[in-house]
Amino acid sequence: MCVSIYLPTTPVTPEAQADRIALKNLAKEAIEQLQEAGADKRRVAALSEQLDDLIDDGEFWRFQARSLAVFATPENLRTFRVHNAFERIVAVSDRFHLKPLLRTISFPSACYVLALAQKSVRVIEVSPDLPPAEVKVENMPEDAGRAVRGVGEIEYWPSGPIHRMEGQKVLLRQFARKVDQALRPLLTGSEIPLVLAAAEPLASIYRSVNSYSDLAEATIEGSPEAMTDAELVDRARSILDGIHRDALAAWKSLFEERENQGRATTDIAQAARAATFGAVDSLLVDIDEVIPGHIDAEGRVVFAEQEGATSYSVVDEIASRVIMTSGRVLGVRKADIPRGQPLAAILRYPI
After folding, report:
1. What gap in Å lies between CA 23 and CA 28, rounded to an integer?
2. DSSP for 148-190, written as a single string
């Protein structure tokens, strides 16, 4: 028996008591569903004890984010503090209800900001719900002068055969290459965006030598030396929102194209069958709605009249089957799904 609970929370500790009461009510609802299904009383009691211990743990409630996810069985309990805002959900089944967490991994609210100027370089880590933190990068140049000449600020640019402006760009390009090289150990294997904060011409010069594929197209314009870490983070979050909007718009555009080719659907039954046989390339799912039922080994869907311990979310199961067949799943709000359906799928081939 698996209990999944999602609830919005507040990071303001004095207000956490209301969240504890909300969890207590959701836990009570879960236990009642198990009792109605005739579950083993001793195992239900053990699961209830796990939830009661969490509710009574004052130290745990001191540190919260925007939402809390709780996964409990009679044997153990795991929690996740999440920066996304979740609707209240309690799901009881033979498996955990994981669909809401897909939002967190679909559109990560994290990035690095490279604040690049001739006189200074700093890298700031942006996390979903923690203060900005400067990252110390080994072998990162302190400034352009030391990077290309071994001394401080470059006061005199090359003249003669190389004109002043051309010489400036030559030295700044050398500086930018050294910065890019220093960042490689930090960014290698990462897929989170790198947001550049720089003024021209350094911004364009850095982009011309950048080797990281996830450098954001938008730039925080102007000299970053005049901006605090908090100001840079605020502007970086706006760029992240734009990246997510663009990614979703591109997906919808592809969906329309594939729909005309018979390779897209918003029908749950069709998506379930396609997911079962590995035909789904990518899937949008509504993270809030729960549609109870079952899906058999052939992908046939039987819907349940109401939620209970003897059913599970069929869209959650479809998402699981897509992931198991190397498809991509994006957790979104219903308004972001074509025609406002619980899901939308792009298929690898017509079915």
Report:
1. 8
2. HTSSSS--S---TTS-HHHHHHHHHHHHHHHHHHHHHHHHTT-
Residue 152: pLDDT band by 50, 70, 90 thresholds? very low
Bridge-partner residues for 44, per DSSP?
Answer: none
State phi, psi for 7 to the nearest 5 degrees.
-150, 145
- Tens digit of pLDDT for each residue in 93-149? 999 999 999 888 887 789 999 999 999 999 999 987 778 899 999 999 988 877 776
Q: Are the C-beta atoms of residues 279 and 349 closer than 8 Å to each other?
A: yes
Q: Report yes or no: 258 and 280 within 8 Å, Cβ to Cβ.
A: no
- Strands 280-286, 194-198: parallel, antiparallel or unpaired by DSSP? unpaired
Helices (H) and strands (E) in the chain, counts: 9, 16
Distance CA 8, CA 22 (A): 9
- Type of residue numbered 67: S
State the alpha helices, DSSP H only, in the chain.
Answer: 16-36, 41-55, 102-106, 144-148, 164-187, 202-209, 229-260, 268-276, 314-324
Task: Give the pTM.
Answer: 0.78
Q: Residue 164: which pLDDT band, with cuts at 50, 70 and 90?
A: low
Q: Which residue has the tokens 């004109």?
A: 163
Which H or E element spans position 126? strand 121-126
Question: Which string of b and e fits 17-36 if b means at least 16 CB within 10 Å?
Answer: eebbebbeebbeebbebbee
